[in-house]
Amino acid sequence: MTQESDSKAYAPSEETVARAHVNAAQYDEMYAASMQDPEGFWRQQAERIDWIKPFTQVKDVDFTLGNVSINWYADGTLNVAANCIDRHLDTRGDQTAIIWEPDSPDEAAQHISYKQLHTRVCRMANVLETMGVRKGDRVVIYLPMIPEAAYAMLACARIGAIHSIVFAGFSPDALAARVNGCDAKVLITADEAPRGGRKTPLKSNADAALLHTKDTVKCLVVKRTGGQTTWIDGRDYDYNEMALEADDYSKPAEMNAEDPLFILYTSGSTGQPKGVVHTTGGYLTYAAMTHEITFDYHDGDIYWCTADVGWVTGHSYIVYGPLANGATTLMFEGVPTYPDASRFWQVCDKHKVTQFYTAPTALRALMGQGNEWVEKCDLSSLRTLGTVGEPINPEAWNWYNDIVGKGKCPIVDTWWQTETGGHLMTPLPGAHATKPGAAMKPFFGVAPVVLDPQSGAEITGNGVEGVLCIKDSWPGQMRTVWGDHERFEKTYFSDYKGYYFTGDGCRRDEDGDYWITGRVDDVINVSGHRMGTAEVESALVAHAAVAEAAVVGYPHEIKGQGIYCYVTLMNDREPSDELVKELRTWVRTEIGPIASPDVIQWAPGLPKTRSGKIMRRILRKIAENDFGSLGDTSTLADPSVVDDLIANRADKG
Ligand code: ATP
Ligand code: MG
């Protein structure tokens, strides 16, 4: 089905084109150069970074199963923290590096200059060294979205320790598994994490987790609320006290380009989370370049990514990319709907945000609350809007474009993964027209290929659909799964030999633009017609009564696979048999008779990961009436949603 390829395209305004780092002609020229001479291209791009010892080799990559190895700039040395802080001190020491906006609008925001950032990161680095952390050691970070989270990341990078961040919403069990998984020496946490007006007792979660780890793990505690915590002398260390005494200079360690910078677990929407390993030189080059070009970041801009540092988006696009570029990056502790649904937009006005980057799940939630929350804000500072994490349905895209961006802000729909370190496909603000729901074009140096899922053969030409693979490496690519290189090879290099397999399906439309159709697992085959479940979801969400929808395939005697839809209604709508009929007819007219839903189940809530992604693998099991093997549910935001869906599955036959 290719009807989206005829959908409307929005060309960038003259003003956007004139300002942009990259216009259409430059994109074509640079992209061609990056394909013809990758070594030359990436040698030049690495000049964005300050190297201690310059590299001589650019790239040494093998995608052959059994022999996979990925190296960039391998004989160069550098320090990531020095790149993100020290090298800016002469030119922009007093410029704000981080704007911190707390959970409650009644608490004052903080502006942290590059000089202040330097002092604080050095102190944190010295505190970690006092606790015995050395180059190559692992440090788990379990913190709220407070500046100390960025200090902790950069302090690790400064001394060459490898950080692994665990989102503060995770349970003690999930935390313990990650501390043990990387054999961490230190766990950094805070007393409590305020979020949406509520407080998560982080330190007591950490206490519970540490019952299931080695006794030698030390705990560094940051004071956020001053709330009561239990204290174990000899194990627990008081960050605020130690930082006062710590020296305010720490020498950046000389790191090899291929030394690990961090380990981060994937969000777990398809299975057991994987400990993704990113290294130093290539990762930073790629994060810095994509941050500048995708968002068209210029000096003086105020850039805001609403993600949490617990996800890769927070790593690359709150901390490392922006700070490597000497940017001003906003860190937000709260949620979009607290104290009310206009918080995002009020923060944009308050700090005059120019680039705003969020997830479809947040946009859909806010869209459901009505336009007045947006319309009462000014938002005239906004220039570029971004989205990431899931396919964005055209309904939400149009709302973002019309209501938030007032039709004047290009939307960059950035497709990428924890594994890719940075954006792999996205329109660029001044170079490409945008289409609602399309990832459009590959980033420089990225060679996407569409493969036939059965034969693995490359499908050329336009107006085609299949499995999305990448032909060759880019500097931000993950290097291995922590402690399990075999799993790395098996997951990404065994299904389609010689390619990096993304796990996503994709379509290249008649214009040669790319659309992510969702996970390959989410492509269903109904009577011989293949379709992405995202397409049916988009149609459902376009109906005025529907707030959210998730669609999966299930075994169907006649059609092979049937279409099973979980539908969450708008607050003011009631489920009814008439509405079921109406939605069926609606989808038939929107897409075609082949996409007509077989089952519609009302879902008061959908199972989502902590990062807000719908866990379709669980919905698939429920649709298949297979409740015994739901797999790893530790990353679910609200496990009770699943029980409710199972309870209501029965009456669907
Ligand atoms: P796991 O790998 O553990 O199952 P996950 O894939 O959800 O978890 P992430 O790395 O957070 O972990 O997510 C990457 C995936 O998110 C991509 O493979 C893709 O399916 C989806 N995605 C991200 N951005 C976009 C986008 N702009 N459009 C469509 N899909 C996107
Ligand atoms: Mg994944």
Short description, anyone?
The protein has 653 residues and is α/β, with parallel strands linked by helices. The strands form 8 sheets. Strands 12-11-8-6-7-14-15-23 form an 8-stranded mixed sheet, with helices on both faces. Helix 11 crosses helix 12.
List keywords for this structure.
single chain; 653 residues; alpha/beta; GMP Synthetase, Chain A, domain 3; eight-stranded mixed beta sheet; seven-stranded mixed beta sheet; 21 helices; 30 strands; 31% helix; 22% strand; globular; disordered N terminus; binds adenosine-5'-triphosphate; binds magnesium ion
Cα-atom Rg, whole angstroms? 24 Å
CATH architectural name of the domain at 527-648: 2-Layer Sandwich
Shape field = globular
Count of β-strands: 30
Please report the number of helical segments.
Answer: 21
Biggest sheet: strand arrangement: 12-11-8-6-7-14-15-23
How is the main sheet built?
8 strands, mixed
Bound molecules: adenosine-5'-triphosphate, magnesium ion
| Beta-strand residue fraction | 15-25%
Regions with little confidence, pLDDT below 50 for 5+ residues: 1-6
Looking at the structure, the CATH topology of the domain at 527-648 is GMP Synthetase, Chain A, domain 3
Structural class: alpha/beta
Question: Whole-Å distance between the termini?
Answer: 30 Å
Helix content bin: 25-40%
> What's the rounded overall pLDDT mean?
94
Binding site for ATP: 389-391, 413-418, 504, 519, 530
Domain AMP-binding enzyme C-terminal: 535-613
Protein name: Acetyl-coenzyme A synthetase
Family: Belongs to the ATP-dependent AMP-binding enzyme family.
